[in-house]
User: Fold these one by one.
Assistant:
Number 1:
Amino acid sequence: MRQDCIDTFETKTAPLPSWGDWAKAGLRMVRADILQLVTTVMSWHERWHHRQKLKNITDTTLMDVGLTREQIQAEADKPFWKA
């Protein structure tokens, strides 16, 4: 006697998105990448600018902050991409 069993599944696939949908999704991804790039470049510029200002800090201010000239120079000499 043969028993009925389920050995296959019927599945329905989702409809494929249209080319317009693909283009919109791609555009969203490109916009997000551009925004991330601009944010990163702005952060690098701000970091570079602050390090340039550190080089000109006065000895009196250094004493107030509690840092040495060597510590300031080490920070100012870091590349802009390093935090």
Number 2:
Amino acid sequence: MRNGRSKLAVLAAIPLLATACGGGGDTGGDTGGDAAAEQLSASLTGAGASFPDPLFQDLIYTYNQDVQPGVQINYQSVGSGAGVEQFLEQTVDFGSSEEPLDDEDLAAAQEARSCEAVQFPVVFGAVVIAFSNEALDGLVLDAETIAGIYSREITTFDDPAIAELNPDMELPSDEIIPVHRSDSSGTTYVFSHYLSTEVESWADEYGEGKELDWADGLVGGQQNDGVTQGITQNPGGIGYVNQSYAQEAGLAVAHIVNEDGTPIEPTLEATMAASEEVEVPDNFQFAIDNVGGDGYPIAGSNWIFTYTCGYEQANADAIIDFWTWALTDQSARDLAGELGYAPLGEALTDRVVAELEKTNSAN
């Protein structure tokens, strides 16, 4: 359920995942930061990615109802590009994106606020290739065929390149209608980064980023909701969306061939497997590349941005408490899993909470 409390306990408790990023204690039973023992009062505004919006809305609802009734959080799903822009313009308390702030963004934040920005990942998620035709559920695609579809070199579902990957599936001759994000989008960044690392011709012609110069003949949609609508409203529709949106809309999804040549269904377990391959540097600037094993290959993370100064202390306490709860409380982690997002592993969670606590530390 969007903008309300989701049904909990659909999945068993999701264990904290061990990562190759350092050690740490068990955070699975925490209920928030040190401020959680007291009642907080604050009003926060965040803006950015639509990729995690289903999760963020349910986390915010649950936190307000069950943890801190005095904290009001308004998260605006405006797309990653707008989220970064509003964060740098200081019109929100925190920003959100599927692409981390680069060195230029960090320098701009420093200049605008006269203190450093803080950024940290909060969840992993899959970008799925979804269809309007339910008979195509489980269709196998690889990076080359996806690139061919979005460059309009492959225009029907029975194209020989798709047929070769699906010898046992009866493919329709329907025209493919590719749908893309028309706003500045972190989901587009994850999708185009994957294609750029896997397909040289895509990297040369289209590259990667939150916005692309798309081929002619594609349909655009605002945010993940708009792409989902574009898929369902067009016979032959195909598009890239966060897994949660495909789940909610009941869309058929492709199995994507990973680095080991294995077609992988986009499941929570496959996203977890992809996230376990990530080596996260100290500055938290990373991408998920070359996923093999049981991992789903089109995967990304969502980052939250705050500042080390400039908040009223009540707001800073609420930011730290909410995100600490979202990262460490087991019911919050279960909720992420229910919606198809993979929580951070144990060691990475410890590192992220330590980074989060730098919020307003320079005041």
